Amino acid sequence: MSAKSQHNNILLAIIGFAAVVVIVAVIGFYALDREPEVIQGQVEVTEYRVSSKIPGRILELRVKEGDFVNVGDTLAILDAPEVRAKMTQAESAQNAAAALELKAQNGARKEQIQGAYQLLQQAKAGREIAEKSYQRVQRLFDEGVVSAQKRDEAFAQYKAYQAQEKAAQSQYEMAVNGARREDKMAAAAQVGRARGAVAEVNSYLGETVQTAQMAGEVSTVYPKVGELVGTGSPIMTISIMDDIWGTFNVREDQLNGMKVGTEFTAFVPAFNKDLKMRVYYMKDQGSFAVWKATKANGQYDLKTFEVKARPTEKLEGLRPGMSLIYKE
Length: 328
Description:
Distance between the termini: 59 Å
Radius of gyration: 37 Å
Low-confidence stretches: none
Number of strands: 13
Mean pLDDT: 82
Order of helices and strands: HEEEEHHHHEEEEEEEEE
Strand content: 25-35%
Shape: elongated
Structural class: alpha+beta
């Protein structure tokens, strides 16, 4: 056999072997099942935070973490002596306004003029208290203890009492000069204003007792008894266990036609059970969650979508934070 024939035989053997390898690879690719891609999510629940419109000190916590509460259950009690003081002032202002109205209706007498004078002194005292309260809150604000809103409320209260003092001055002068029809109308308006102030302070007093707005489980309690909480500061978090869902982050090439209303089965490792779920929300997570193409030729960027799905049947014991496994 010549060297050329031997070389051709070797070349044919190599080509044949390569062809066999390629054929086996193609058959294996299509014959063997591909491992499904796994997408992991977790269980979430709706939560709401309990907070107060007024600052105060935690006097009592009626619940602890893990307790289940119903609508109207008392959760926490705050101590707010400033609000009680404002109530005293507001009630005094209401009584003063009512007395002024009575004086305007009945006509001024010597005793009534004297009473108007006393009411003026009372209004001055209220203004002085409000001014001192504002100055005290201003100092606390400068020290970073209270919020700007608290400072503004104190300033508004001071301005209100300042205006009330001026109104009392006018009422006193009216008593001296005799009441007219317009004066009687003004006195009645003062009474309405004072009643509104009392109602406002009453609403603030109601904020010292925090109650559950919806039934749920106490998941987190933030302050301890005796601690000071500011306006709007969270006191505790309530988890609404009846409103539960799962959230998944899915690359768009893994959606495979998934849309709102699609049902799928997720595996719950905590119970070693499958759970049927229905998609109710889908939204892309923006440019910060884009899978960038590594090559410019034939590839493109892929976005990640947040997919939320609710269980179609109740699984007893399912809790927020538990893992959910979805296989394409």
